[in-house]
Automatic annotation (TrEMBL):
GO terms for molecular function: iron-sulfur cluster binding; metal ion binding. It comes from Desulforamulus hydrothermalis Lam5 = DSM 18033. This is Hydrogenase large subunit domain protein. It comes from the Bacteria. Residues 121-151, 167-197 form the 4Fe-4S ferredoxin-type domain.
């Protein structure tokens, strides 16, 4: 399992308490009435454990609860809890001992705010005046000025996270693609994503129409090595779902359609990317809009599987996608195929609140998908499945992970003028979907579990 930090423990404890309340209280009970008691249960009387005082700890937990249940209105899937942000009072640009006190002083001359002075044969930066433009670091011929990035800024490859005048993190919603990587790296847990866990529980309790869970193939191994996806299906049925469908069913269809796109457009263009990673697709649209026509027009496996379910029930069904990805919460709003989205972490909280012992459940069979559909969950799975449907067509394949690397690879490939066609498999998360921010295990563990679930002894082409 992933090493569990104090931040993760607090978040999962909070999710479980919210789920337990939602499962056992009357449907018309106002949640606001119980927030104070829930906060005190999580942060009991006594000395502060993490912050300056217990009052700040409780204020942060209260705000986190309100965001999780929708009582604090926010207009984006990923948001900063201002009270929780430490402000990271580090100095972004620092002069090191490598400073040579050169006569030209290019660092001082390049500073637009005159924030650099030379004292006792060494340059110093006035951090009050510094606006963190970085011109001094670029100008120094000895690389004596280093840049220290805040964890959230470093995690965001498209520059959607900045700091305000008080040095607290702010998210530019116009740039943010909801990849969730900043959520996982903030050492103070100040960045969070909106949860639809309460909506799912209430919807299952009201049960105005059938409910179908669409589970991502990355679910294999997420709840321990002794818990199979077939047992998770049994658990979901115990929660009230009428059926459970693998998103891998949609992946099988997507691989065929993307292969067809390649065959149809190979004469007009020289590169195409997958469409299954919503964070990557959004990053292209926002950072490289001139190349968005290189993204496959095929819907993602999540939406294709949701479409199949909606058609089966003539639209009179509630579909809930369960996966490792925060960006899927935003993608679900692009169509009507998926109604609600949960991460594996949120599902774990619901199962814990319901006191369901996964390891002790009997398995319920899941059929109808191919190994390649399930392997979409890990790096290389998409390109392998697509290539399987191309026959003798020559295809160059690139497998890239990380938003920054993906955008750079697409930009480079689009400039090439060779005769062969290039398919770029781009994933925002390292290792593919198994490395998503909503996972419970490491990418390596998740990859092995996905391959085992896809079929023992499968040999895939490189």
């Amino acid at each position: 399992m992933n090493p569990v930090s104090e931040i993760t423990k607090l978040r999962r404890d909070l999710f479980t308490k919210i789920a337990r309340w939602a499962l056992h209280h009357p449907l018309d009970a106002p949640f606001e009435m119980d927030i104070s008691a829930m906060v005190k249960e999580m942060i009991p009387d006594g000395p502060a454990r993490y912050r300056c005082c217990i009052h700040k700890e409780r204020a942060i937990v209260e705000e986190r609860i309100k965001i999780a249940v929708g009582l604090t209105p926010v207009n984006h899937p990923v948001t900063v809890i201002s009270e929780a942000c430490n402000g990271c009072s580090l100095n972004k640009y620092v002069v090191t001992d490598a400073c040579q006190n050169c006569v030209a002083h290019p660092c001082r001359n390049s500073c637009p705010k005159k924030a650099i002075s030379v004292i006792q044969n060494r340059a110093f930066i006035d951090q009050v005046s510094c606006v963190e433009c970085g011109k001094c670091a670029k100008a120094c011929p000895y690389n004596a000025i280093i840049e220290i990035n805040r964890p959230c800024e470093r995690a965001c490859a498209i520059g959607a996270i900045k700091v305000d005048d008080s040095r607290k993190a702010i998210i530019d919603n116009e740039l943010c693609v909801s990849c969730g990587l900043c959520v996982t790296v903030c050492p103070f847990g100040a960045i969070t994503d909106l949860s639809q866990m309460l909506d799912v529980i209430v919807s299952l309790r009201v049960k105005e129409q059938p409910h179908v869970a669409v589970i991502a193939p990355a679910i294999a191994g997420q709840f321990g090595p002794k818990v199979s996806p077939e047992q998770i299906k049994t658990a979901l049925q115990q929660l009230g779902f009428d059926d459970v469908v693998e998103a891998a069913l949609g992946a099988d269809i997507v691989s065929k359609l993307e292969a067809q796109e390649i065959m149809e457009h190979a004469a007009q263009t020289n590169v195409m990317t997958n469409s299954c990673c919503p964070a990557f697709a959004q990053a292209v649209r926002k950072k490289l809009p001139e190349l968005q026509d290189k993204i496959s027009t095929t819907l993602s496996p999540m939406r294709v599987a949701g479409q199949l379910v909606k058609n089966k029930y003539d639209g009179k069904v509630t579909t809930v996608f369960i996966g490792p990805c925060i960006a899927k919460k935003a993608e679900a709003n692009q169509g009507d195929e998926i109604d609600l989205v949960l991460t594996f972490e949120e599902l774990s909280a619901i199962l814990s609140a319901k006191e369901i012992d996964l390891a002790g459940l009997p398995p319920t069979a899941m059929t109808g998908v191919t190994p390649n559909g399930r392997l979409f969950a890990r790096a290389g799975g998409v390109s392998t499945a697509v290539r399987k449907h191309l026959g003798d067509i020559s295809l160059n394949v690139m497998q890239v992970q990380g938003l920054g690397q993906c955008l750079a690879a697409l930009k480079t490939a689009a400039k090439q003028t060779n005769d062969s066609f290039t398919f770029i498999e781009c994933m925002a998360c390292e290792g593919g979907c198994v490395g998503g921010p909503g996972t419970m295990v490491t990418p390596a563990v998740g990859t092995r579990a996905v391959e085992k679930h896809a079929g023992e002894g499968i040999i895939l082409p490189k």
